[in-house]
Write the structure tokens for this entry.
Amino acid sequence: MPRSRLCSFCGHEFQQGSGQMYVRNDGAILWFCSSKCRKNSLKLGRDSRKLRWTKYFGKEEKGKA
């Protein structure tokens, strides 16, 4: 049974075997469910907490609010 993964940008679950894995130079692994999420995060540098279509919309970081 393939396990589901969580998108690093939007927070939605997707099946293993789909999506894209990105490894940063510091060794951090980011999983993206679509090219839309990958481009918004890496190329455009957007914050997922400011976009309504993500699950992280309106969530503040711990200790800041």
Remarks:
- The mean pLDDT is 91.
- The domain at 4-44 is CATH 2.30.170.20 (Ribosomal Protein L24e; Chain: T;).
- The CA atoms of residues 8 and 40 lie 11 Å apart.
- The longest helix spans residues 35-43.
